[in-house]
Design goal:
The chain has a 5-stranded parallel β-sheet, sandwiched between helices. Helix 2 packs parallel to helix 3. The protein contains 5 helices and 5 strands; from the N terminus they run βαβαβαβαβα. The protein is an alpha/beta fold and 123 residues long. The chain is globular. Pfam families: Response_reg (PF00072). This is Polar-differentiation response regulator DivK.
């Protein structure tokens, strides 16, 4: 089963998105801040959905730390953010994110990005 690490500090957003992913057959691991995200990445999820505006360590820095560790560097990361300003996508990609999606979440669009980053044998 494909395991996704969902990093989201807003409890309502975290609950809503995790339930939607679970219904589609994903195993979901949760983290509420960037520090938890870096620690949870050590469990080697198949993909990380990373909110960028996080407490403790922001999503940009958490992404940089995950990508700097050889054990976790190959895990695909999709930035999730309400930041839709010009240049935010570029900043997320420069931090090491493999893709970028804006909130509110459009689930079909997000699932398409998830599928594009997962090995073809995974759901």
């Amino acid at each position: 089963m494909t395991r996704i690490l969902l990093v989201e500090d807003n409890p309502e957003n975290r609950d809503m998105l995790s339930r939607r992913l679970l219904r589609r057959g994903f195993d979901v691991v949760l983290a509420a801040d960037g520090g938890e995200a870096v620690a949870a990445a050590a469990t080697l999820p198949d993909l990380i959905l990373m909110d960028l505006n996080l407490p403790v360590i922001d999503g940009w820095e958490a992404t940089r730390r995950i990508k700097a560790d050889p054990a976790t560097a190959s895990i695909p990361i999709i930035a999730l953010t309400a930041h839709a300003m010009s240049g935010d996508r570029k900043t997320a990609l420069e931090a090491g994110c493999d893709d970028y999606d804006t909130k509110p979440i459009d689930l079909p669009r997000l699932l398409g990005k998830v599928q594009a980053l997962l090995p073809s044998s995974q759901p």
